[in-house]
Design brief:
Chain lengths: ~260, ~220
């Protein structure tokens, strides 16, 4: 692919802190290489801002390999930008051409309050996992890896659900700011394996209750979450979460 | 948790929507079957027999009470969920994904439902209301076939009915699939079948309903 440079106009959400009222600011970024990642383009912009004595734009990032889930930009109306199953750090500037205007916003959800600029607080996800995303194991030596037979299809489905990196794109993309895809992935990878069995009757219920407490919306089966998920977590997981919930409702104890 | 608590979480409320919605789908099927009797072209003989049964049978009349209760839950819970879900994002996006990540009708269930409700009010006012009123006041059942023939000569009534059926079709395309998803039945194995049956149902049933006013208006049935 031909390498080229471009000049871009960025409209970025700036917000001093959680309490402040934010607004969009425009920036001109010059000589952006088509081989840069989207975050590298932001690095260039921030260096430019620092050199001019201005405050750089705050954004989340960590591994820059597409596996940590930290980068959280809503780019021109799309979570992590327009590429399928891609995080922001893996979106490359060859997507854009000279003279483009790009609007960058933080994840918008009341359950994800803005900390600063493009950085949002996603600890609501940690509290949901704390409410039920665990298993009970005996202390002592680890059991032999092959002592619990698990059929291949189940193992694959559990693994597919476990690839969820908790980035929050599902919430950002959902018109209801629902966290159902995330919760369903976290319930699914445990529900599919024998290790997750002891807490089966309370896990889904407890996690759903925590999800409601955190202020996420409810699922209306629209599917925007699945379309934007960088790990391709499927809606079948939400069906499974609903089944787990129903199972607990119809046969569970009063615990939980 | 007790039953009430189970039905009060976000999934519980969706279960209310799903179960009442599936009941309404069953109702549509029966209603469509009964009304399609007009297409026997026998001057409404079979239709009036069927309508007489539905209007006087004790079991059917009892289920009718349940139908109104379920309809009420479906409408109220749907509107409550819609307003609650909208409040979950106080600051909206400058640029929205639009139809790139989801279908317009799946995001417009409350709007489509409200359109169906507006149609339903007119529909009850035109047929169900006068008939029950006549029954309760000792006037006996109305000749519903004659009433249909009369009402469906009015252009605006036919237009509203066709628009109501179109709204119903779009509402069903998402609603049918969504009801099964909420019950957790859209597994890898069944989701294709459910989707296909759902789309078929959402096209065929509203189409048959829409053909009724059109058929009277165009004098295909007399």
């Amino acid at each position: 692919m031909q390498h080229y440079n471009m000049n871009l106009t960025l409209k970025v959400w700036k917000q001093k802190n959680n309490k402040a009222k934010g607004s969009f600011e425009s920036y001109q970024v010059k000589n952006v290489s088509s081989e840069m990642s989207f975050l590298e383009m932001f690095d260039v912009l921030n260096e430019q801002l620092v050199a001019e004595g201005k405050e750089p734009i705050a954004f989340d990032h960590d591994c820059r390999e597409g596996i940590c889930g930290m980068c959280s930009m809503y780019i021109n109306g799309r979570a992590h930008g327009p590429w399928h199953e891609t995080t922001t750090c893996q979106l490359h500037m060859r997507e854009y051409k000279d003279g483009d205007t790009i609007v960058v916003e933080p994840w918008r959800a009341n359950a994800f309050p803005v900390i600063k600029d493009l950085v949002v607080d996603r600890t609501a996800f940690d509290r949901i996992i704390g409410a039920g995303g665990y298993i009970s194991v005996n202390t002592g030596n680890a059991v032999d890896a092959n002592s619990l037979p698990i059929d291949k299809q189940k193992a694959d489905e559990a693994f597919a659900a476990a690839t969820c990196i908790g980035c929050g794109a599902c919430v950002a993309a959902c018109p209801n700011a629902s966290a159902m895809l995330f919760v369903s992935a976290k319930v699914s990878h445990l529900a599919l394996l024998p290790q997750g069995d002891p807490e089966r009757k309370i896990r889904a219920v407890n996690m759903v209750q925590q999800m409601d407490t955190e202020g996420f919306g409810s699922c209306t089966n629209i599917g925007a979450c699945e379309a934007e998920c960088p790990k391709g977590i499927s809606l079948e997981n939400i069906a499974r979460l609903n089944r787990e919930y129903l199972g607990s409702m119809l046969s569970g104890s009063k615990q939980g | 948790m007790n039953w009430k608590q189970y039905f009060s979480t976000s999934i519980g409320k969706k279960l209310q929507m799903s179960l009442t919605g599936l009941f309404l789908i069953l109702f549509l099927l029966v209603h469509c079957y009964i009304n399609a009797q007009i297409f026997y072209m026998d001057g409404g003989k079979r239709f009036d027999e069927a309508a007489h049964f539905m209007g006087t049978n004790f079991v059917i009349r009892t289920v009718e009470l349940g139908l109104f209760a379920f309809l009420f839950i479906h409408i109220i819970q749907g509107l409550l969920l819609w307003s609650k879900n909208r409040s979950r994002r106080s600051v909206g996006y400058q640029v929205s994904a639009g139809n790139k990540t989801s279908a317009w009708y799946s995001r417009s269930m409350a709007l489509l439902g409200t359109l169906i409700l507006m149609f339903l009010v007119l529909h009850l006012f035109k047929f169900w209301g006068p008939n029950r009123f006549s029954q309760l006041t000792g006037g006996g059942e109305l000749k519903l076939y004659d009433l249909m023939r009369e009402e469906f000569q009015l252009t605006w009534v036919v237009v509203v009915y066709v628009l109501g059926c179109i709204s119903l079709g779009w509402h069903l395309i998402h609603g049918f699939y969504s009801a099964f998803q909420t019950l957790g039945l859209n597994t890898f194995k069944y989701k294709g079948i459910i989707r296909t049956i759902g789309i078929g149902f959402s096209i065929i049933v509203p189409l048959i309903f829409a053909l009724m006013p059109i058929a009277f208006y165009m004098h295909w049935v007399i």
